[in-house]
Design brief:
alpha/beta; 6-stranded parallel β-sheet; 16 helices; about 15% strand
Length: about 425
C-alpha cells in the first residue's frame, strides 16, 4: 500500500481519487441487451442465460420444490445466523416507519403527508464467487416492512440451472414474493420492461458488476427508478496512536477483498501506527483465500499521515466514504463532526463486517463520493410520500389575497380565477 505523509489540501483530490473504470463501449453493449429483452421477452432471457451463465433453462421462475430443497442444503448453523441477522435488520428498520403529522399552517388550512409503499419492487442479487445472500436480507426485509405488495428477485443461476441455496433460504426468510433465474444486465431489463415471466417493477435495487450498473443507469432514464448510483466498494479508517493495528488491518482487508477495484484508506496522525498496520496487512493477507483479488485492491489504496485530527476529519468528509471506521480514544467526539459518509462504525469493537451482516443497519450504501448527496437504503427507499391539504371556507379566505396576488404576478390568470370564483 502507498504511504503518503502530510499531503496538502490541494493534493487531496488526486490522492483520494477512486480507481478509474473503463467504460468504453460499455453502454452501447448493454443497450443492445436491453433492447433485445424489451423486444423478445423470455426468448431473449433464455438465450442470454445460456450465453452468459452457461445455463440451459427450461423455466425462469424458481419453483416451490426448489425452495424446499434449498432448506435442506443450508446447514443449521448458517440458517440460525441468517435468522438472527434478519431479526436485527427487521428491528432496526421497523423503527424507521414514518408517522403522520397534521399541521395547521394558518387557521382553517391543514396539511399533512402520508407515506405509501411502492407496490412492486425488483431486487438484483449477484451470484458467482460471492453469493450475497446478506444483501438480499438488507433489501427484502425493509421492503416487506414498508408494505411493498410484490418483491421480485432476479439472481443468476449456476451452469446446472440452480440458484445458490443460501440465497433461496434467505429469500424465504425475508419474504420475497417470486424468484427468477436471470443474471446480469438482462435481469435489469426484465424487471424494467417486464417479460412473459418476469413482472415489470417500479423500482430496482441491488449491486452488480459494471454491466448491471450500466443497465440500471440506462433504464432509470425512462422506465423505472433505481436505488442509487453504485460503484466499487470502499472504506476509510480514522485511527490514532492507540488503535489496535491488527484490528485496523483486518478492516482494510475485509473491504479490499470485495474486488480488485475496491479502495481502502487509513488516515492517522501516528507514523508508528502506519508501520504496524503495514506489517499486520502483510501477515493477514497471506491467510486469505481471496489474496490475489485483495492485493489488486491494495495496489490503489493508501495510508495517509496527517498533522492533526482536524485535517483528518476535513479530508474524510471531502472523500465521503461508503464505510467509515473510527478507532480513536475520542471516537464519539469525532463522530459528531462526520457529515459525509454512508455508514459509520465507532470504536475498536465495531468492524465494518458487523454492519455488512448482522448489527441491523443497512449495508446498501452510496459509493464514489455520492454519500455527499445520497443516503443508504432505508424504509424511505421503498416508500413514496403524498401530501394532502384541506382548506375550510375561512381558511381559503385567509389565503385568497396571497394566492391571487402571486398568480397574477406570474401571469397565470386561471390559477387566480380558481380562487376568485370561490370568493364570489
Amino acid at each position: 500500500m502507498k504511504v503518503v505523509k502530510y499531503p496538502s489540501k490541494e493534493q487531496w483530490p488526486q490522492l483520494l481519487a477512486r480507481p478509474a473504470l473503463s467504460v468504453e463501449g460499455l453502454y452501447d453493449r448493454v443497450q443492445v441487451i436491453l433492447d433485445n429483452v424489451r423486444s423478445n421477452g423470455d426468448k431473449a432471457l433464455f438465450e442470454l442465460e445460456e450465453r452468459f451463465d452457461k445455463a440451459k433453462l427450461t423455466t425462469l421462475e424458481v419453483s416451490q420444490a426448489e425452495l424446499e430443497e434449498a432448506k435442506t442444503l443450508v446447514n443449521d448453523t448458517l440458517q440460525q445466523a441468517i435468522r438472527k441477522a434478519a431479526a436485527n435488520i427487521e428491528k432496526f428498520h421497523a423503527s424507521q416507519l414514518p408517522k403522520i403529522n397534521r399541521v395547521e399552517t394558518v387557521p382553517g388550512v391543514t396539511c399533512w403527508q402520508k407515506a405509501v409503499p411502492i407496490s412492486k419492487v425488483g431486487l438484483y442479487i449477484p451470484g458467482g464467487s460471492a453469493p450475497l445472500f446478506s444483501t438480499l436480507l438488507m433489501l427484502s426485509i425493509p421492503a416487506k416492512i414498508a408494505g411493498c405488495k410484490e418483491i421480485i428477485l432476479c439472481t443468476p443461476p449456476a451452469a446446472n440451472g440452480k440458484i445458490n441455496p443460501a440465497i433461496l433460504f434467505a429469500a424465504s426468510v425475508a419474504g420475497v414474493s417470486r424468484i427468477f433465474k436471470v443474471g446480469g444486465s438482462q435481469a435489469i431489463a426484465a424487471m424494467a420492461y417486464g417479460t412473459e415471466s418476469v413482472p415489470k417493477v417500479s423500482k430496482i435495487f441491488g449491486p452488480g458488476n459494471a454491466y448491471v450498473t450500466a443497465a440500471k443507469q440506462l433504464v432509470s432514464l425512462k422506465e423505472v427508478a433505481i436505488d442509487m448510483p453504485a460503484g466499487p466498494s470502499e472504506v476509510a479508517v480514522i485511527a490514532d496512536a492507540g488503535a489496535n493495528a491488527a484490528y485496523v488491518a483486518s478492516d482494510l482487508l475485509s473491504q479490499a477483498e470485495h474486488g480488485p477495484d475496491s479502495q481502502v484508506i487509513l488516515a492517522t496522525t501516528s507514523a508508528e501506527l502506519i508501520d504496524r498496520v503495514e506489517k499486520e496487512v502483510g501477515l493477514q493477507l497471506e491467510q486469505l483465500p481471496r489474496k490475489e483479488i485483495t492485493e489488486k485492491a491494495l495496489g490503489h489504496s493508501v495510508l495517509i499521515l496527517m498533522d492533526n485530527m482536524d485535517s483528518v476529519i476535513d479530508m474524510i468528509n471531502d472523500y465521503a466514504p461508503e464505510h467509515l471506521i473510527i478507532q480513536t480514544d475520542n471516537y464519539l467526539e469525532l463522530a459528531e463532526r462526520v457529515v459525509n459518509a454512508g455508514s459509520v462504525f465507532l470504536g475498536p469493537y465495531s468492524p465494518e463486517s458487523a454492519g455488512d451482516y448482522a448489527s441491523g443497519t443497512n449495508h446498501t450504501l452510496p459509493t464514489s463520493g455520492y454519500a455527499k448527496a445520497y443516503s443508504g437504503v432505508n424504509i424511505d427507499s421503498f416508500m413514496r410520500k403524498i401530501t394532502f391539504q384541506e382548506l375550510s371556507k375561512n381558511g381559503l379566505g385567509s389565503l385568497a389575497d396571497t394566492i391571487e396576488t402571486m398568480a397574477a404576478n406570474e401571469f397565470l390568470d386561471a390559477h387566480k380565477n380558481a380562487v376568485t370564483v370561490r370568493r364570489k
